[in-house]
Specification:
By secondary structure, the chain is α/β, with parallel strands linked by helices. 37% of the residues lie in helices and 15% in strands. It has 10 helices and 8 strands. Strands 1-2-3-4-5-6-7-8 form an 8-stranded parallel β-barrel, surrounded by 4 helices. Strand 3 (72-76), helix 3 and strand 4 form a beta-alpha-beta unit. The radius of gyration is 17 Å and the shape is globular. The termini are far apart.
């Protein structure tokens, strides 16, 4: 059993956040090996970064065990809206909370498009999952991002604002004070797996985020910005991680395939620490 008495309140305001999304790249043993290596590195090296790892569903429990006391938090790659019961294949909030999972990704572009699960998830379903997080102990990492076509049509801000506000269920005034909301801006056109990907320029990303936050605050009519942290994702590596993380509105990064190697993860952590 996990040690439920050990504090897991690792994240602190003002630190860079590094989320490692392992997707379906790694098997269970590979996830265990990587989590073990990363936990060892975290224990042996001083760092101010808040590290979150998101393994496959099958690897969540063994990875959770390895992260205990390492100053690293656990994140699920998705969640279902149902409570425990007759829901074959479901992954409930109760199960995630039992293994001390603190975060869950919602609305990743591969899930929105149907690439990962075969059936696309729309803003309405994502908002229901957001509400599940609000009712329990999980903190959402709400992924947003426009496609190349939406960008070319000048709809970037429109899409991001809709994904944010609808994804949050238009309920900023109902978000518990204990919650931290991460918005992970991952433009689909900048993702490394996209054959026609383009490079996202850090200061341009910062300007887009600034406009989005202004629009969200105006629309919500609340002081929601004090509750939101921004992550950037999209072909992040050791060469550019510091340039993204150093932007005024960016609080950290969401990393995909580059986070499945201990040497690459630690290289990126060293770069973001040195910025």
């Amino acid at each position: 059993m996990l040690d439920i008495n050990k504090s897991d309140d690792y994240l602190s305001k003002g630190n860079n956040t590094v989320v490692c999304n392992w997707k379906a790249y790694l098997g269970v043993q590979e996830s265990i090996d990587l989590a073990s290596a990363l936990s060892k590195w975290s224990r042996e090296n001083e760092h101010s970064s808040d590290i979150i790892v998101s393994p496959s569903h099958a690897s969540l429990y063994p990875v959770a065990k390895l992260l205990e006391g390492a100053g690293i938090s656990l994140c699920a790659q998705n969640i279902d809206i149902e409570k425990p019961g007759a829901y074959t294949g479901a992954l409930s909030a109760d199960l995630l909370e039992e293994i001390r999972c603190k975060y869950v990704m919602l609305g990743h572009s591969e899930i929105r498009s149907g690439k990962s699960l075969g059936v696309p998830e729309d803003d309405s379903l994502i908002s229901k999952k957001f509400a599940v997080c609000m009712r329990g102990k999980l903190n959402p990492i709400l992924c947003i991002g426009e496609t190349m076509q939406e960008r070319s049509s000048g709809k970037t801000l429109e899409v991001l604002k809709r994904q944010t506000l609808v994804g949050m269920g238009k309920m900023p005034d109902k978000i518990p004070a204990s919650k931290t909301i991460y918005l992970a801006y991952e433009p689909v056109w900048a993702i490394s797996s996209n054959k026609t990907k383009e490079t996202a320029i850090p200061d341009q990303i910062n300007k887009i985020v600034t406009k989005l936050l202004d629009a969200v605050e105006k629309e919500s009519g609340t002081n929601i910005l004090s509750r939101i942290k921004i992550l950037y994702g999209g072909s992040v590596d050791s060469r550019n991680i510091a340039s993204y993380a150093s932007q005024s509105e960016i609080d950290g990064v969401l990393i995909g395939g580059m986070s499945t190697s201990i040497s690459k993860i630690t290289a990126m952590l060293k770069e973001i620490e040195a910025k």
